[in-house]
Specification:
192 residues, binds manganese (II) ion, globular, 8 helices, mainly alpha, single chain, three-stranded antiparallel beta sheet
Length: 192
Amino acid sequence: MTQLITLPYAPDALAPVISPETIAFHHGKHLATYVNNLNAAVAGTEFEDKSLEDIVRSAQGGIFNNAGQILNHNLYFTQFQAPAEGNAPQGRIAELIDAQFGGFEAFKTEFSAKGAGLFGSGWVWLSADAEDKLVITQESNAGNPVTKGLKPLLTFDVWEHAYYIDYRNARAAYINGLWQIINWKEINKRLK
Ligand code: MN
């Protein structure tokens, strides 16, 4: 039985980058629906007691789509903190970004462009391979880099439901805002 995650911050903590209204719909309606749909779909199947990652690695169709969306949203919602001007990576992830992308600004530019340029609904990801080589990938719909053997570190949801209340069609403005609310301590935890 998969549970809807509890957010590690108040519903208004991310404003104005993400409004309480978006949190109410995105977490309280969209993510909750994926959780309800998955629990209904796996009842009595081989997937009933598997972890989300195991389901995403082995299922197809509706079970894959709902499990993928839950795994993706859990990573998305738990990577944020209150907005801070000049928010930037720290520690190990900062070292890896500097060494492999030539600095945070260059990384941000590439990651943002891949998010803005993703056609339709999906996710842009920063992941690490087994040797801590960083890779930026685009995934359509419910895709997650664990299916490619990668460890997901950071993700921007670019489905329209993630930004339409606050930014209307301006996906690039939404992406630009998200950099202010990334909790880089959490990203470092995922790297370990
Ligand atoms: Mn979403």
